[in-house]
UniProtKB/TrEMBL annotation:
<dbReference type="InterPro" id="IPR013022">
    <property type="entry name" value="Xyl_isomerase-like_TIM-brl"/>
</dbReference>
<dbReference type="InterPro" id="IPR036237">
    <property type="entry name" value="Xyl_isomerase-like_sf"/>
</dbReference>
<protein>
    <submittedName>
        <fullName>Isomerase</fullName>
    </submittedName>
</protein>
<dbReference type="Pfam" id="PF01261">
    <property type="entry name" value="AP_endonuc_2"/>
</dbReference>
<feature type="domain" description="Xylose isomerase-like TIM barrel">
    <location>
        <begin position="22"/>
        <end position="253"/>
    </location>
</feature>
<keyword id="KW-0413">Isomerase</keyword>
<dbReference type="GO" id="GO:0016853">
    <property type="term" value="F:isomerase activity"/>
</dbReference>
<dbReference type="InterPro" id="IPR050312">
    <property type="entry name" value="IolE/XylAMocC-like"/>
</dbReference>
Length: 282
């Protein structure tokens, strides 16, 4: 298992100001960090990748679809073309960063709803785009981990059953799923059953408490989650995800406007200790 932490707890764009926290993350013994790639240039992420490497930290990435004007699922040819260009930019940045995984909900704009579930046409457009991404990722040696979100953040992918059907539509071994315990806590009848159903197609595990605060301080049974994940033979990227007082890029969709942990040092230290201990005990 490679233990990481999602840097959205710090902010939506990671620059020089984040270095003291990155140093603390390395000091605590995390193996890698998951970098939010929302905007910026590949040059910036190449610089950041070098900084992480110097600290002994590996790199992973999370990205989104920013808005309806670059929606890869759109029926409009011009909009869909801009969406595909945005997905290309995500991979440009991933390759500059040296990311081992590209995760997140890079399927549909967060917080946008159509009043129904995904149409067959949207699934077809999405699967075509994500197959192309997976083909490129395989050439460059990293994997994709698309993230289902709860029904309150997206209409496109909500459950593991939907994710498994979508995996079949994409049809590429480099393409898999980012399983997030916060979203699954809302959408699944049983996290253990959902993890068993997803099986080897779990490419990243997001450890996220029911309130998105410090893992182990809320209602999610991480002992059962970790036991189920280990029973599937998973030994990949496990990433703590907690949100602070709100990241402007995500606040409207995630409804996180209040502090969910006392301070960043507490989050980093307690999360590392809790996940390491609970994983080893599972």
């Amino acid at each position: 298992m490679k233990l990481g932490i999602n840097l959205l707890c710090i902010g939506g764009h990671i620059d020089e100001a984040a270095m003291p926290y990155l140093e603390l993350i390395a000091e605590c013994g995390f193996d890698h960090v998951e970098v939010p790639v929302m905007h910026g240039s590949p040059d910036h992420y190449e610089w950041l990748g070098q900084k992480l490497s110097a600290l002994g930290l590996g790199a992973a990435q999370t990205s989104i679809v920013p808005d309806l004007d670059a929606n890869p699922l759109s029926a409009g040819d011009a909009i869909r073309k801009r969406g595909r260009a945005h997905l290309d930019w995500i991979q440009d940045c991933a390759e500059a960063l040296g990311s081992q995984t590209v995760g997140g909900p890079f399927h549909a704009p967060m917080g946008h709803f159509t009043g129904q579930g995904p149409t067959a046409e949207e699934i077809s457009y999405g699967a075509e785009a994500h197959h192309a991404m997976a083909t490129r990722a395989a050439r460059h040696g990293y994997i994709l981990a698309l993230e289902p979100l709860s029904r309150f953040e997206t209409y496109f992918l909500n459950t593991v059953a939907q994710a498994n059907a979508y995996i079949q539509a994409v049809d590429h071994p480099t393409f898999g799923i980012m399983y997030d315990t916060f979203h699954a806590n809302i959408e699944e009848k049983s996290q253990t059953a959902a993890i068993n159903a997803l099986g080897k197609k779990m490419h990243v595990l997001h450890v996220s408490e029911n309130d998105r605060g410090v893992p182990g301080t809320g209602q999610i049974d991480f002992s059962s989650v970790f036991s189920a994940v280990k029973a599937q033979g998973f030994d990949g990227h496990v990433v703590v995800e907690a949100f602070g007082a709100g990241v402007p890029e995500l606040a409207a969709a995630t409804r996180v406007w209040r502090p969910l942990f006392p301070d960043l040092e507490t989050l980093i230290r307690q999360s590392h200790s809790f996940v390491r201990d609970a994983w080893n005990a599972a």
